[in-house]
Amino acid sequence: MMAKKGRKRRFVWVLDFTEFLTPQDVKKTKVLSAVGYFLFFVPFVFHGDSQYARFHVNQSFLNLLMSTLGIVLLGMIPYIGPYLILLQLTLSLIWAVRGFILALQGKAKGIPLVGRLTIFAYRYPGQTYAPGDDYPEL
């Protein structure tokens, strides 16, 4: 949704989608959603209709995609490229472990800065808002 005139949109470092999920959905899929941070397709195959599972599939795939692109791009830098690749892989592992722990805790928090990107849709049809957006008037 568009921000109202005169109001700035606030910047969100970490997407927190937890409040939009049902407790039943979280309880049913949190273990496989956590496993998805190391095999991203597992929750999608077993719980493809779950909003919680799809959120974590999206985050784990973003982590995999950023890691792959980082390795390719940083590998082109001579001399310091291998060290930067090591740093990037360490960050990717930290984000995967963080996502694994958050998924087991029943929370839906995204990767800092890029977690708002959506590759696998996790919102229901007609749900046009996300944390940080202006909410519709009820």
Q: Could you explain how this protein is built, in words?
A:
- Helix content is 49%, strand content 0%.
- It has four helices and no strands.
- Helix 1 packs parallel to helix 3 and helix 1 (23-35) packs antiparallel against helix 4 (81-105).
In percent, how much strand structure appears in the residues? under 5%
The 3D shape can be described as elongated
Percent helix among the residues? 40-55%
Structural class designation:
mainly alpha
How many DSSP H or I helices?
4
**Mean pLDDT across all residues, rounded?**
81
Terminal CA distance: 15 Å
Counting DSSP E segments of at least 2 residues, the number of strands comes to 0
The low-confidence runs, each spanning 5 or more residues with pLDDT under 50, are none
Q: Summarize the biggest pleated sheet.
A: none
Whole-angstrom Rg: 17 Å
Order of helices and strands: HHHH
Strand and helix map with partners:
Blueprint: H1 23-35, H2 42-46, H3 51-74, H4 81-105
List its salient traits.
single chain, 138 residues, mainly alpha, 4 helices, 0% strand
In short:
This protein is mostly helical and 138 residues long.
